[in-house]
Write a structure and sequence with these properties.
Layout: H1 2-24, H2 35-38, H3 51-69, H4 80-86, H5 92-109
Helix pairs in contact: 1-3, 1-5, 4-5
């Protein structure tokens, strides 16, 4: 139990870092997408929302729910390459911070951190 408790706390800290990086890059969305957009079955909801919306309202919210309920966390994750592509029009120093945060989440969930 202690290991799971620790893993959940680490993920909570990593999600906070990601939120701050997204805010710094001006890609932290505040307007909630429609229910229809959230029901997309496409990877990253690419057909119904922008990547930053998916990060904010799908990925982060799902992780927060897992943390709140103490659910098992995914055992692998590989989100950072999508961020590099999705944010290629943003200042690279700020995108680098987002990618670094996502890499940390990827490594943590994959057991590499």
């Amino acid at each position: 139990m202690k290991k799971a408790f620790s893993a959940h706390h680490v993920l909570a800290d990593l999600l906070m870092d990601l939120q701050m990086a997204m805010q710094d890059c001006d890609v932290w969305e505040c307007e909630v997408p429609s229910n229809e957009a959230l029901q997309s079955s496409e990877p990253f909801c690419l057909d119904t929302m922008r990547f930053e919306q998916w990060l904010r309202f799908v990925m982060i919210e799902r992780f927060k729910m897992m943390l709140a309920t103490g659910s098992d966390l995914p055992v692998r994750c590989h989100i950072s390459p999508m961020a590099e592509e999705a944010f290629n029009d943003k200042p690279q120093s700020k995108v680098h911070h987002i990618v670094t945060c996502l890499n940390s989440i990827d490594r943590h969930l994959s057991g590499d951190l």
